[in-house]
Amino acid sequence: MVAKVPMPEYDSLEVVNTVIAERKKFLDFYRSITGDLRAQILSYIENEGNPTNITALNLRRYTNSDEETVIRKKSLINLYSPKPEQTPFRHLEEMRSEHGLLFCPSCGEDGAPGTLDHYLPKTEFPELAVCIANLTPMCSTCQGKKSSDYLTDDGRKAFLHPYYDEISVSLFHVDIWPPFDKPSAFNVTVKGTISGGLKLLVESHIEGIDFKNRFEKYCASKHLHLLKLMAEEREDEEPMRAAQLIRRFLRQENKKAINAWGSIYYESVLSTPALLDYLDNGNLPAFI
Ligand SMILES: [Zn+2]
């Protein structure tokens, strides 16, 4: 997660209460699980979704057979696919399309994220399928990569939580290696200034969404774009220096988020003096 985003204003407990009150089937099941389900949501909020502190409810405790457990689990998961007249249809629609974000809070790529991710997956925690605090905006690429993962191999929380984890610093740096007319490589790393616990979490997060591979491809096309812009700038009567121009681009990207893809790229260009010198004085490629 590259940016903390505000939690929707809906009360997670209130929404679940309404959802359960609307049930017409499996009433005995819902009656018996309601107390524990409410407690689970409060526990989620208190523990900020951290899976090392939250144990999934054992649904077998509320049913009479294994077969019934499978069916009730499906019923809980299906609460996330309400009909238009049911709760939380409207809530989910608003959370998908009215968040006002210009980038994905999970990876930082440009574009309004159109899907919601279950931070703790509904297949493992079906009782949290419609817990508002567990539903975060995400781009479809991140969602496909994250899938139902939530723990690292050694049992730690694997992903940053967009509603709870505060990220106020720039996390990444890209090494850009010459030749600059067609860089031989971009290598993104977590900055050395990021401390132990956060560094481990950021590293498992970005691995889980295939960030490195995706972002380095973006750098390649962004770089080509920058070479073209510099070629045009040199045609200007009073051309700006590369550093000045790029600081302007960086300010614009930082308005989205400090770890938006453009921010990472431009900040890295600004801290690569040999590249700035090339942009001002080098021979830009002829294909531009
Ligand atoms: Zn994403």
Number of strands: 4
- Biggest β-sheet description: 2 strands, antiparallel
Strand content: 5-15%
SSE order: HHHHEEHEEHHHHH
Q: List segments where confidence is low: pLDDT < 50 over at least 5 consecutive residues.
A: none
Overall body shape: elongated
Count of individual domains: 2
**SS-derived structural category:** mainly alpha
In whole angstroms, the N-to-C terminal distance is: 35 Å
What's this model, at a glance?
The chain has helices spanning 12-21, 27-46, 66-78, 89-97, 140-146, 196-208, 211-235, 242-256, 261-270, 273-281, and strands at residues 115-118, 135-138, 172-177, 185-190. The chain is mainly alpha-helical and 288 residues long.
Describe the structure.
A hairpin with a 7-residue loop joins β3 (172-177) and β4 (185-190). The radius of gyration is 23 Å and the shape is elongated. It has two domains: 12-146, no CATH class; 172-281, no CATH class. It has a two-stranded antiparallel sheet. α1 (12-21) runs antiparallel to α2 (27-46) and α8 (242-256) runs antiparallel to α9. The chain is built from ten helices and four strands, in the order ααααββαββααααα. It is mostly helical and 288 residues long. The chain has helices spanning 12-21, 27-46, 66-78, 89-97, 140-146, 196-208, 211-235, 242-256, 261-270, 273-281, and strands spanning 115-118, 135-138, 172-177, 185-190. The longest helix is centred in the last third of the chain and has 25 residues, at 211-235. The mean pLDDT is 95. Helix content is 45%, strand content 7%. Zinc ion is lined by residues 104, 106-107, 109, 138-139, 141-142.
